[in-house]
Protein 1
Amino acid sequence: MRSNSRTPARPLRPAFRCSACGHETAKWHGRCPECQAWGSLDEGPAPGSSVRRLSPGPVTHPAQRIREVSAEVVRPTASGLAEFDRVLGGGLTPGAVILLAGEPGVGKSTLLLAAAKAWAERGHGPVLVVTGEESAAQVKLRAERMNALHEGIFLAAEGDLEAVLGQVELVKPRLLIVDSVQTIAAPTVDGTAGGVSQVRAVAAALTAEAKQRNMACVLVGHVTKDGAIAGPRVLEHLVDVVLHFEGDRHSILRTVRGVKNRYGPADEVGCFRMVPDGIAEMPDPSGLFLTRRAVPVAGTCTTVALQGRRAMPVELQTLITPSGAESGRRTVSGLDPSRAAMVVAILQRWSGVSLAGKEVLASTVGGWKIAEPAADLALALAIHSSARDASLPAGLVAIGELGLAADVHPVPGVAQRLAAAARVGFEYAIVPPGSATDRPRGMRVVEAASLGEALNFAAGDGVVRWMHRGAKGVG
């Protein structure tokens, strides 16, 4: 006889939510499976019921053939700051939401106030600056110091999301700047301002408002002590552009690096310098990353870093000193520590340089950060020069990636890099094989297939022999 009793429904298990990225899981973990943060899973509400079947609803925007879709609405508008527009892909796009993140005191508010002034002076429409961290009087004092007072800039000090949306309805800006998204709270969402739920709700509401009004929106974001953007990871997915504003507070250089960009290149960089009355653009900052000296110094070599469409000659400096321990430290600044350690290992294995028990220090001039492998060859030449206490010839630039077998691998944009080096006065270059076809006029370029060939050309009178006899050289 069949029983009519039903099996009781299994109770819903509690969910655990990550306070760093918002990821939910039914089981507790010591480390978040999504963002890899330790100890960030907190017990929260039970997960919702299973997805139910939905019926088709009314269509708001009928599908069009892709050829018939108009792209005029997403044409970028130049803000007036050329370096800022370079990173954005030509300017501020109507309806785009931009997240600008950076450390406290680096100058995010100053940069955006300069962008607001340039936008208003060009007559692109009203600018609404919403500040949740400072009072309106504090922002006005900074604007007076920067000479950024303009009739087209409106200022509001708000910390409530509904009040911010009310200000947008009142001003009807073409550019909205919110400083910062972590200080705005939505009254309909639980939690304090800056929490995962609050940041997600505020960003989603402002994004929807920007899309509906076809209004460019810039959100200022905080960063953690590790340099990552604070708040849920979904924040970076919601916005269209993610920018990092970087710089040492003890240096005048500031850089805006693109991390994500739906409207242009995602690896572009813009350069600025801090001045007493605000911030100024630096169209050609190459002089900050080179040292002008009358006599060459051992342990230095110049490479050309490629960031987006910008090629930048950067000097690498190394220093080798005895260490009291058996294994010396490897300290780098502005370079990738993993690649620097690999270059040191290649030198010890293939060039006969003994670095055991010695400290190796490597740094870039001016604080420029190089993450690409094209600086491997220049770093190897600089370390070898420091170990031999013999300087490299003046006017030499080295470009190339090193393999573990000490071979030199090709890198992209060699012609662009050589042109940038020749523009600032470099006369000789060592490049990977097959890269010297488009050399600048007047520059002597040599192709090195291995680290040994590069060392022979660069060390001592190697460059002199190559210059006079043209051994394996081009030009």
Protein 2
Amino acid sequence: MTEKKKVLVLFDIDGTLTPSRKTLTEDMDNFITELQTKVDVGVVGGSDLPKQKEQLGENATTRFKYSFSENGVIAFEEGKLISKSSITDKLGEEKLQKFLNFCLHYIADFELPVKRGTFIEFRNGMINISLIGRNCSYEERLQYVELEKEGQFRQKFVKILQEKFSEYGLVFSIGGQISIDVFPQGWSKEYCLQFVNNKGYDEIHFFGDKTYKGGNDYEIFIHEETIGHTVTCPEDTVKICKELFF
């Protein structure tokens, strides 16, 4: 009899387990419960822990074997905090302020039909930038998405940031529908792998929707220690998982 493989499945959240910025559906919640009888399950998102809990439930850190927020800078294993790092310590205040001031000036001069609050969100492991503002309504978010298809707003801003701050060792990653994630080199979602690659897994699978180069799932998707899967929506995630693990 062939020995059963020890498998870990890591999921991105937005667009993979939930619609962007929406909560976990009852069907998906039930599916994850069933999947956990087959394999170990972890989540790795770019958002901070409070937002992760909004989407996955207050038990987000205990619901899964591993829970990684801010790409794994905040790391939980079986409900226990195992690591916490800070971008402030990594960059230093002088560089940080130069970067933030440049972004604020750029956003102030950028024209959109609507602009809302929280254009820069400072997190432990990254800086999240939004030209429209994270306080936009769902309808305003969708309007922005349509405008950006032609305007390529974030792509153009990322190119400017890459040129202006080329010596800072930063990665600029387009995440979700309205944001740019900024973090030190090596602090993308691959950061979380250091906490699982010595746990004896035969396979580590990753599921994400932004797996293209420049997307915030790209680095972990192509990593030599993972088997990457590109999905288009939560239903697609379920379909592929059933084909692989059931």
